[in-house]
Amino acid sequence: MQSTQAVSATVETPTTPWLATVPVLASIYADAGVTPGGVRMDIFKADDRLNSRGEKIEGNGLAKYGAIVRRGRKVLIDVHRYGAWLAGRAPVQN
């Protein structure tokens, strides 16, 4: 008798996240125009915050993707989640 195995058609995401520092992440997405300063600004604006009048400023949504990992002073970014967030952004209107 021959044994047959079912082949799964789903693509599995890696269980261990691919974490990178800000400069490394910028070099990975350099073709998309991402710079280290731009990544730092994305991290700074990831969460909702208040302006000087106490009004809420919406974050850019990066924190909701779970892409930011903080270990003390060290800030690491999940490369796959950042890429998904970057691909889902609306184009900048001039």
Fold and architecture overview:
The chain has 94 residues and is an alpha+beta fold. The chain has one domain. 28% of the residues lie in helices and 16% in strands. It has helices spanning 22-28, 36-44, 79-88; strands at 19-20, 49-50, 56-57, 68-71, 74-78. The strands form two sheets. Strands 1-5-4 form a three-stranded antiparallel sheet. Strands 2-3 form a two-stranded antiparallel ribbon. Helix 1 (22-28) packs across helix 2 (36-44). Mean pLDDT is 84; it is low at 90-94.
Number of strands: 5
Strand order of the largest sheet: 1-5-4
**Backbone CA Rg:** 18 Å
Question: Judging from the principal axes of the Cα atoms, what is the shape?
Answer: globular
How would you classify the helix and strand content by structural class? alpha+beta
Q: Bin the helical content.
A: 25-40%
Q: In the residues, how many domains can be counted?
A: 1
Mean pLDDT: 84
Beta-strand content bin: 15-25%
